[in-house]
Design brief:
8 helices; about 0% strand
Length: about 280
């Protein structure tokens, strides 16, 4: 019973953090940009009418409000559930599905962001552009120590799976765990490579801003690799030690940590907005 109460408290934290606090913080930053750098003075920042930007903000707010209400409904039903599982179902599955609901507004916003930058490139009427001749190497953007930690965590995870496999647990996925974590890390490595060597999405972005963006993105992805690998190891360990009651708590805490780390990608401090003026001061 104590573990169940702790779980609902932690889940309430997930509901409020991911579907209320973080969305409000993101919308606050968007409003700050629109008010401080309006279309009249920074037209290149707005490849679409300002009405479209305001509509996107309303949609994002409403989607998060829906996710917030769903979370409260889950908490209400769970409080009166005759079992310790949410919705009389597997709590892990409920948390996972709900996290996808919570994360969907951000995924839709990210997809819209690609379209937004494509419109920026189409609207870019410049006939000459400056090429970036600076070499981009991984250790220029992330500390070798952090990369070393990520590699150590992965190797330790593989060793841990090999060790646990000898106990022949009926529920244990064995080497499929290694396959899954390896696939996750390869995906993250691919995104890192794309950020390092791919074309910049924003055609007006300065070299300094792009370096900061790549550094931030690469560090987020490396930390995501470490966190994902560590969480799977913790989940397997809790199951092996017969602490399954703690698994929903650990999953909810992990998802909140993922959201907090991802939120760092929305930093706007230090961005050179002068490039979006009709005649920018910095090319």
């Amino acid at each position: 019973m104590r573990e169940q109460m702790i779980f609902y408290f932690v889940f309430l934290s997930q509901v409020l953090l991911i579907s209320s606090y973080l969305p409000r913080a993101i919308l606050s930053r968007v409003r700050y940009v629109v008010e401080t750098y309006p279309p009249s003075k920074y037209p290149k920042l707005y490849p679409v009418p300002i009405e479209a930007v305001e509509k996107a903000q309303r949609n994002y707010k409403n989607m998060n409000l829906f996710a917030l209400l769903v979370g409260f409904v889950l908490l209400f039903i769970g409080a009166y559930s005759p079992t310790e599982e949410m919705l009389n179902w597997d709590s892990i599955s409920v948390i996972t599905i709900y996290f996808l609901v919570q994360h969907s507004p951000m995924m839709i916003a990210a997809t819209s962001g690609f379209t937004y930058f494509n419109l920026m490139r189409r609207a870019d009427s410049r006939t000459t552009r400056k090429a970036e001749l600076h070499p981009r190497r991984l250790f220029y953007f992330v500390s070798p120590v952090i990369i070393g930690v990520a590699i150590f965590v992965y190797v330790a995870f593989v060793s841990f799976i090999i060790y646990v496999r000898q106990f022949d647990f009926s529920w244990f996925g064995g080497y499929w765990n290694i396959f899954g974590i390896t696939a996750l890390n390869l995906l993250l490595v691919g995104i890192i490579v794309q950020n390092l060597y791919g074309k910049k999405k924003d055609p007006y972005q300065t070299y300094e801003d792009r370096v900061r963006h790549i550094e931030l993105t690469v560090n987020i992805l490396v930390f995501s690799s470490i966190m994902g690998t560590v969480y799977v190891a913790i989940a397997i360990g809790l199951h092996a030690l017969d602490f399954q009651d703690l698994m929903p708590i650990s999953l909810s805490l992990y998802m909140q940590l993922v959201a907090i780390i991802g939120f760092r990608a929305f930093r706007i401090d230090g961005i050179n907005f002068e490039v979006y003026k009709e005649t920018p001061a910095v090319a």
